[in-house]
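User: Structure please.
Assistant: Input sequence and predicted structure:
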Amino acid sequence: MIIRSLALAGALAVTAVPAVADDIINMATSFQIRSMDPVKQGFWMQEFGQGELLMKFQPDGSITPWLAESLVRKDDTTWIITIRDGVTFQNGKVMDVPAVLAAIKYHRDLNSGTQSVLPAETEFAQTGEREITVTTGVPVPELPNILAHESRLMIIDVDPVLAAGENFEALEGAGIHTGPFKLISLDDQRMVAERYDNYWQGKPVMAGVELRFVTDANARILAVQNGEVDIALYPPIAAAPVFKATPNLNLALGPLSTGGFVGFMDVTNGTFEEKAVRRAVMLAMNYEEIANAVFHGAKAPATGLYNPNFPYALKNYRYDVDEANQLLDAAGWVRDGDSRTRDGETLSVTIMIYPQQPDLVPLSNAMQSYLARIGVASNIVSVDSVREAAMNDLVEWDLALSATGTATVGSVSGFLNRYVACDGDRNYGGYCNDTVQELITKLDVTVDEERRYDMLRQIQTIVAEDDPYIFNLTILKERALVSDAWTNYVPAVAWNHIKWDTAPNK
């Protein structure tokens, strides 16, 4: 549907006169920022140039200083944060240690996400003019990732927030953040921010930001084409050929992200109770073709469970139809024409997808053709929520597809504990491997980097080769749709869409 409508729009298009201001970053997103509530909505602020964090996630999986000047681990339970000198909030207040400690306390008191990742015994204390000592009581190996996560410890000026109470509209224009653009107005249609001239990294290049909330993908695409916005987030990849053929539409691709489309196999009921079948299905997937033909090069081929740029990532996925067929033959699944049977049962798979991710339609269709090559029949079922359907047995399924990050902001523990651990609240397929469980438990309290890498490699080997359960089908490339004047725009990892030097082509 979308390709047809876009093609028609492109055919009728004429050269548009841009309706956007040259010195304003005009952007459209599918999600609405509902308020300036620092707990429930504050994470949006680092995405669009208002808020900042102590640490910052990088495309190679590392965590580097941002509002912190440095983060040093003294031992397994002690860290030293040195905050950056010369930073002010947009209201002019100095970002000193007491201000940072107040922001941390605010989130620890009110933010359930922060509470879930920091042990209750963790203490943050001023131990120098610009120094904070963190004692966690128990090892928290992913503290750097916590400090780099937009939903955990955004640095804000707490005093105006406390004064506003539940009147979050009072925070519009209050300058509670440290970023390059100060939010001055917010409604259900758009967010407007103006340049903060005293920003610590330098004067922002652009005069402001106007972010429009546009849920319909077609409307966002046409807004770029017609010159109403410069950048539209979350373009549907299936329409990439149309973008290429349409004036003033350009698909901008950034670095690899921390996840992609993931397949979860139901290992406790049905087809995938058998390891040989699970392994055969993984071998039957043509990861290169999925990325480059199905998704037109806008995604990267999955080579393993993690972004291949990460130091612990194994490239242990293979496409080998012959080996897949041999595994099924050896397991007694007899090929007869297009199908396989054993003891009167036909080998078949039900693939579960959900409509909020339209790219799952071409992906699941491609998977059907790969399964057919090894004699596995398949059908596709669409549900409103994969999580609800899988965890509550609402439909029969064998392979659930989901867009999921396996190392969001570089953190591996959340995904492993929720999706892979025996009692994980999103362990869709009922997977429970004693060795994997032991490794996850040890990983949660292991700080030494090389030991962590070794454990992660062991986990990857088991879940992909020895006892398959979960596998990536693609790795996401960060993406945006941009006008001709913004073709140099590089979509960022960790949702940091706007920075102080974000600007159109020179």
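The chain is about 30% helix and 25% strand.
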